[in-house]
Amino acid sequence: QGTLMKGKKGLVMGVANERSIAWAIASAVAAQGGEVAFTYQGEALGKRVTPLAQSIGSNLVLPCDVSDDAAIDETFAALEKEWGELDFVVHAIGWADKQYLRGRYLDTPRDAFLTAMNISCYSFSAVAQRAARLMKPGGSLLTLSYLGAERVMPHYNVMGVAKAALEASVRYMAADLGHDGIRVNAISAGPIKTLAASGIGDFRYILKWNQYNAPLERNVSLEEVGGAGLYMLSDLSGGVTGEVHHVDSGYHVVGMKNPTAPDI
Ligand code: NAD
């Protein structure tokens, strides 16, 4: 047990199960002495999240569908009542209708576009509005992105557009909140087999492609993303804001297929 997060309290949003990136970050924070509250979407996930939270000594587990402003208000009112203030928030939430996570981006209808933007981009701003009010200088807000925000990835489609907007919102909020000493960053994770990822067309192919073509010649682990999350939430990254930090075995620097990689 380390002490990097000793005395810090924060909220982790987006745990669905033990394979969630949110859980990897929460465990890393708890292992360094941080106190973590959780939100979940819907009662079914609540039943999964509660025992995970208890396993790291947390009993603060709240429902929060981020499409609902009143639910976000209630979450932060509950945290204010319990803790008074907040040191960090992790937003590890994204959603798009999987019908449109295959085929052409061009065919995305308006309602699917707006829902993807609402849940995957705006919700981070909505959460940050409430969280920042409870934060002192040193506060840290973190979201999760993917390379599909910067480059065209097959099937990522409307999620890529939403993640591009999310990354832009990280930069704007970093500027807005810098004066208050609050940092806003994103981790752009390489592909990991989670519940959300299973909605993306040909995800196994994407995993293989990254494994063969990334400089480290492998995919990243949940623990590695958890470790980067810990860095972003702790004072170790005190000088870092507005950043999109790639944790992807270096894949984002690659311009062409590795000529020695096997066929997939
Ligand atoms: P996950 O399925 O474990 O987590 C996604 C979470 O989003 C779930 O807990 C789900 O309940 C939550 N969510 C969806 N709609 C919601 C709503 N309306 N209200 C509240 N919560 C809602 O999958 P994950 O891969 O851990 O995803 C976490 C984040 O990481 C997402 O933003 C995802 O886009 C991002 N990401 C994932 C990968 C990957 O390959 N798995 C790579 C890069 C970025």
UniProtKB/TrEMBL annotation:
Q: Which residues bind substrate?
A: A96
Q: Specify the superkingdom.
A: Bacteria
EC number annotated for this UniProt entry: 1.3.1.9
Give the matching CDD domains: ENR_SDR (cd05372)
Q: Where along the chain is the active site annotated?
A: Y146, Y156
Catalytic reactions on record: a 2,3-saturated acyl-[ACP] + NAD(+) = a (2E)-enoyl-[ACP] + NADH + H(+)
Keywords in alphabetical order = Fatty acid biosynthesis, Fatty acid metabolism, Lipid biosynthesis, Lipid metabolism, NAD, Oxidoreductase
Q: Does the keyword NAD apply?
A: yes
The cross-references to InterPro entries, in alphabetical order and at most eight, read: Enoyl-ACP_Rdtase_NADH (IPR014358), NAD(P)-bd_dom_sf (IPR036291), SDR_fam (IPR002347)
Q: Does the keyword Lyase apply?
A: no
Broad class of enzyme this protein falls into? oxidoreductase
Pfam families found in the cross-reference section: adh_short_C2
Molecular functions per Gene Ontology: enoyl-[acyl-carrier-protein] reductase (NADH) activity
Q: In which pathway does it act?
A: Lipid metabolism; fatty acid biosynthesis
UniProt name for this protein: Enoyl-[acyl-carrier-protein] reductase [NADH]
**What taxonomic lineage is listed for the species of origin?**
Bacteria, Pseudomonadati, Pseudomonadota, Alphaproteobacteria, Acetobacterales
